Amino acid sequence: MNPPLTDDLRDHLIDMWARVTNDGGSVGFVPPVTAADIRPTAARSFEKVRQGTDALVCLTMPTETEKTCKSLRNGAPLETRQNAQNDLVHIPGTDPDNRPATSPSVPLTGERVVAWLLLAESESLLRRHWRTVYRVQVDPDFQGAGLGTALMAAAASYAKETLGLEALTLMTRSGTGAERFYKRCGYREVGRIPGAIRVAPHDSRDEVHFWLDL
Ligand SMILES: CC(C)(COP(=O)(O)OP(=O)(O)OC[C@H]1O[C@@H](n2cnc3c(N)ncnc32)[C@H](O)[C@@H]1OP(=O)(O)O)[C@@H](O)C(=O)NCCC(=O)NCCS
Fold first, then answer.
1. What is the Å distance from ligand 1's center to 178 Cα?
2. Ligand 1 pocket member 136 (CB < 6 A)
3. Which of 76, 98, 111, 165 could form a disulfide with 72 if both were Cys (CB 3.0 to 4.6 A apart)?
4. Model-level pTM?
């Protein structure tokens, strides 16, 4: 939770954000994008993390494990890949019963972020009992292995136990499959604004609002 936003970590998060987008992910941009396209938007979010109004929730993996998993993904038999995936979902800190550390700013020495999201506090004093989840993303090399589910569980646990929140909300664009993912994570659809997101001149998607009581 809230690791120090060093230059290396900023570059790594922005690089992942560009790869996730170019792989078809829905995190505020449409492909093709470069890190340079994303950097100004990222800088605004990182500044909010520095100020403490947004929280950065990351799943990390030892760099050696990351290399092994990547090589497994590139051509290992199905059973071997499934065993690796079982190992991934047991990364320390992703177990919902394993409460997040309350101490902020632990450096990520020897660790690489493989999934992350942000929890934004509202500017309204009347809306401080919940936060908005945004920029949810898993490194494309590790998607489909349970990390997204573990990330959402870790964020909910941190929001409830450490931040003392009562709920989380998030918005997604329709037609991506993410709606199914969030429902699987316990969120319920509470609203939908038709055609609010225009991803291309003749392609407008609904903005779907989700809510999770903690
Ligand atoms: C969406 C995302 C965070 C999910 O993380 P993940 O690690 O791939 O998800 P998990 O392995 O935990 O999968 C959990 C379940 O959700 C499903 N799922 C995940 N992403 C999905 C998608 N885009 N469409 C349909 N189903 C999806 C999985 O199939 C799985 O269900 P199953 O057990 O029935 O097979 C990840 O795929 C990602 O980063 N996508 C690109 C960025 C993005 O679009 N983020 C959402 C912004 S609103």
1. 6
2. yes
3. 76
4. 0.86
